[in-house]
């Protein structure tokens, strides 16, 4: 008989609750959980396809080990023996930094990915960390770190209560939101309009979100920071700055005014291609609204001035008094956050504590730019050793990083590589060992990261919907064993990893004066933890020590794992609330409006005032049925409009001799690709668009459906040299390209 089970969807940042229909051990259907305290039944096509993804026949079921140049199936014991033999000699001979760790964004969608990579990094002590953040969101982390002293203190728009929302470089009707966890983002935007609110969208494409807006500005790609600086200028010049309750918490107001005085609407209009009167109107409307929020995402981050744009978003929210107030942009408080410390000065945020070996690129948030990964492997320098081994967890940088062809070759030269991945994909095919995690239905789920970005405070946890299939290993155990193998403790009980973390966490907590367990015996506290295994005990620990927790008895009505398990649809913890000054960790204990690194980058933005691109520039795009390169092997998610085509405006198509549906050649600094043309007036003239995550045509993969319709890799158009200097984030949008009919030789192609 079919049965049902609850599961939180792991396929995008919306984290919707699902009700799965299960026959035997197979998920046969998925629908929205109407009783979920957060998503209330909302579901998108990705969640509806949960069963197809879960049962994908191309998912690896057993480890693979390379022998005589070929990957073969192996036992788990063989696989971890090979990992220990492959990694330890590299570290012992060349040092810890010769071992690189690459983390993909699926890590934030699993419990294992949230709980173990930080432990791995602490155990192997390498500074060679590369993640998907530097091809996505690192500018926001850096700007938050500099403004607020904490790279993870990211305010989110109070979507349910705001009167005015300005969206920049974001398309939540397709992406479901990013760095803003909000089930049914489309419904929240429609509700905003229904209650008389105003929605403005700034995007070079007329996206589905832009079509919903009261005003759509088709800005020139890459000019977001200039637009925001001019709006800031208007607030000062017209006397519209009103800090309200923020006034005691803000430093640098007069210095900021002086720093942006050059960025008048007239000065930026040409570079932005936005009329000065419109810029003034945007600033006045933002200041006049009863409540308002500015929200910007990947389109504003993956550009040359991504960190400045991210900073100016929060500057505008601050200057209009909308930061940290209902209806504005607020700091969420997740149930697994550490016990809030008393407000006061902190250590702040530092950049460039170390640098990459080849280009001397500075670290940000402990990470080096993913764009530098290939050169750190294939380039010799007098300083330090090249990367000789890699641990790659849930990442596919051959498709997601610039110049995948170079990285593809570099990976083949490594002494050793281990991938934790359910697929043999464009990256994992180079591994000497592949460790496949089980399908999501066989794994537990709690959203550690996304709850810190949620538009409503809540907590949910779901245990595996079906038992672990014989022969599989839980992802948590895979990563625990990987930590032991990489750190020289191969063969130890993997449960020791969780025990170590619990002991260390409690040892620190009992010494913190503001902790609810200050002065208690950590062994006594450890004995009180509940849970079926180490990961659940760690979740119980984090809940108990968190802002809503029971404090191990100090607050009897507080959260524990046992209480959460009694609420299978989750526990609502209420709307976002003002929290300042507690989240601030700057040296001053205040919002530092003009941090020195940002002030030092403003001359580069002034240079952009004179820039006028004359040829075509490229931007990416999202689709509701995609999430980077993950989901192209699921047939239900690659039909309809989810295709790898080049969008271009009819005027550009006519000038270039390109016809709708015919192949078109796109050439950038890093290479050339050919894709079908899709002529549409939904994109502004002078701009073309290719989606991200495609290019599944390399040999040696096991992605049957994706390989039949591979698309092309947009990141191959990049050579990896264009970066936002503060964050190291790759410049993926607004890059110059040449476009022409595929049959026309490059020398004869029309000039853009």
From TrEMBL:
Record keyword Plastid present: no
Key word Iron present: yes
Record keywords: 4Fe-4S, Iron, Iron-sulfur, Metal-binding, Oxidoreductase
Record InterPro entries: Asp_de-COase-like_dom_sf, MoPterin_dinucl-bd_dom, Mopterin_OxRdtase, Mopterin_OxRdtase_4Fe-4S_dom, Prok_molybdopt-oxidoreductase
Coiled-coil annotated spans: none
SMART domains: Molybdop_Fe4S4 (SM00926)
Organism domain of life: Bacteria
One GO cellular component term: membrane
Residue ranges constituting the 4Fe-4S Mo/W bis-MGD-type domain according to the UniProt record: 2-58
GO molecular function terms noted in the UniProt entry: 4 iron, 4 sulfur cluster binding; metal ion binding; molybdopterin cofactor binding; oxidoreductase activity
Name this polypeptide is given: Molybdopterin oxidoreductase family protein
């Amino acid at each position: 008989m079919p049965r049902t089970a609850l599961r939180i969807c792991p396929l995008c940042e919306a984290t919707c609750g699902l009700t799965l229909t299960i026959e035997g051990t197979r998920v046969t259907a998925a629908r929205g959980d109407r009783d979920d305290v957060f998503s209330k039944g909302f579901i998108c096509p990705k969640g509806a396809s949960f069963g197809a993804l879960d049962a994908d026949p191309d998912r690896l079921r057993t480890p693979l080990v390379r022998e005589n140049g070929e990957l073969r199936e192996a036992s788990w014991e063989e696989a971890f023996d090979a990992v220990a033999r492959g990694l330890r000699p590299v570290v012992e001979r060349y040092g810890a930094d010769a071992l690189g760790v690459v983390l993909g964004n699926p890590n934030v969608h699993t419990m294992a990915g949230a709980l173990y990579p930080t432990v791995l990094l602490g155990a192997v002590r390498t500074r060679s960390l590369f993640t998907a953040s530097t091809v996505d969101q690192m500018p926001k982390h850096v700007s938050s770190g500099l403004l607020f002293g904490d790279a993870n203190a990211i305010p989110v728009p109070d979507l349910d209560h705001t009167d005015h929302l300005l969206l920049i470089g974001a398309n939540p009707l397709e992406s479901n939101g990013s760095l803003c966890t909000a089930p049914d983002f489309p419904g929240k935007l429609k509700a905003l309009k229904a209650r008389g609110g105003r929605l403005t969208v700034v995007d070079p494409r007329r996206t589905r979100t832009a079509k919903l807006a009261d005003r759509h500005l088709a800005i020139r790609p890459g000019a977001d920071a200039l637009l925001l600086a001019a709006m800031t200028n208007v607030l000062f010049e017209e006397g519209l700055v009103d800090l309200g309750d923020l006034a005691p918490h803000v430093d640098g107001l007069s210095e900021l005014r002086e720093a942006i005085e050059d960025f008048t609407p007239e000065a930026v209009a040409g570079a932005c291609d936005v009329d000065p009167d419109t810029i003034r109107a945007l600033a006045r409307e933002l200041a006049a609204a009863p409540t308002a929020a500015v929200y910007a995402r990947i389109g504003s981050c993956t550009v040359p001035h991504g960190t400045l744009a991210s900073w100016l978003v929060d500057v505008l929210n601050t200057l209009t008094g909308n930061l940290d107030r209902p209806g504005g942009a607020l700091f969420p408080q997740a149930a697994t956050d550490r016990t809030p410390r008393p407000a006061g000065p902190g250590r702040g945020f530092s950049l460039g504590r170390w640098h990459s070996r080849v280009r001397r690129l500075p670290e940000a948030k402990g990470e080096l730019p993913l764009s530098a990964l290939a050169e750190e492997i294939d380039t010799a320098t007098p300083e330090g050793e090249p990367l000789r081994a890699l641990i790659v967890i849930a990442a596919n940088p051959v498709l997601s990083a610039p110049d995948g062809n170079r990285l593809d070759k570099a990976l083949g030269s490594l002494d050793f590589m281990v991938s934790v991945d359910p697929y043999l994909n464009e990256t994992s095919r180079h591994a000497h060992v592949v460790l496949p995690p089980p399908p999501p239905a066989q794994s537990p789920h709690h959203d550690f990261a996304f709850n810190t970005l949620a538009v409503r405070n809540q907590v949910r946890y779901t245990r595996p919907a079906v038992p672990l299939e014989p022969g599989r290993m839980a992802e948590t155990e895979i990563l625990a064993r990987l930590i032991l193998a990489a750190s020289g403790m191969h063969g130890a009980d993997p449960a020791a990893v969780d025990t170590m973390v619990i002991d260390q966490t409690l040892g620190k907590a009992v010494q913190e004066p503001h902790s609810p367990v200050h002065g208690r015996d950590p062994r006594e506290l450890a004995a009180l933890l509940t849970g079926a295994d180490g990961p659940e005990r760690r979740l119980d620990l984090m809940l108990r020590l968190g802002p809503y927790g029971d404090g191990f008895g100090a607050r009897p009505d507080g959260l524990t794992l046992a209480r959460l398990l009694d609420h299978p649809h989750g526990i609502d913890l209420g709307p976002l609330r003002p929290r300042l000054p507690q989240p601030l960790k700057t040296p001053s204990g205040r919002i530092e409006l003009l941090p020195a690194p940002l002030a030092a980058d403003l001359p580069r933005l002034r240079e952009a005032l004179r820039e006028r691109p004359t040829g075509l520039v490229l931007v990416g795009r999202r689709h509701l049925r995609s999430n980077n390169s993950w989901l192209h092997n699921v047939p239900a998610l690659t039909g309809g409009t989810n295709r790898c085509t080049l969008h271009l405006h009819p005027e550009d198509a006519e000038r270039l001799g390109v016809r709708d549906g015919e192949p078109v050649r796109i050439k950038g600094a890093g290479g050339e690709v050919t894709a079908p043309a899709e002529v549409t007036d939904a994109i502004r003239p002078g701009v073309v668009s290719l989606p991200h995550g495609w290019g599944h045509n390399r040999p040696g993969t096991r992605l049957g459906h994706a390989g039949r319709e591979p698309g092309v890799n947009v990141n191959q158009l990049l050579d990896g040299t264009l970066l936002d200097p503060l964050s190291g984030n790759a410049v993926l949008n607004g890059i110059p390209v040449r476009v022409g009919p595929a049959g026309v030789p490059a020398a004869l192609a029309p000039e853009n």
